[in-house]
Amino acid sequence: MKKILVLAAIFAIVFAMPLIAGGASEGGSSTLRFGTGGDQGTYYGFGNVLAQKISSETDTSVVAVVSAGSQDNIEMMDMGSYQLGFVQTDVMSYAYNGTNLFAQTGAISDFSTVAALYMEQVQIVTLDPSIKTVADLKGKTVSIGSSGSGVYYNALDILGAYGITEDDINPTYQSFGDSVDALQDGKIDAAFVVAGAPTVAVSTLATTHDVRLVSIDDEHIDILLESSPYYSPYTIEAEVYGTDEDCQTVAVGAVVIARNDVSEDAVYDVVSTIFNNKDAIAQSHDKGNELDLAFASSITTVPYHPGAAKYFSEQGIEVPVN
Question: What is the helix (H) or strand (E) element at residue 141, kind and residue range?
Answer without folding.
Answer: strand 141-143
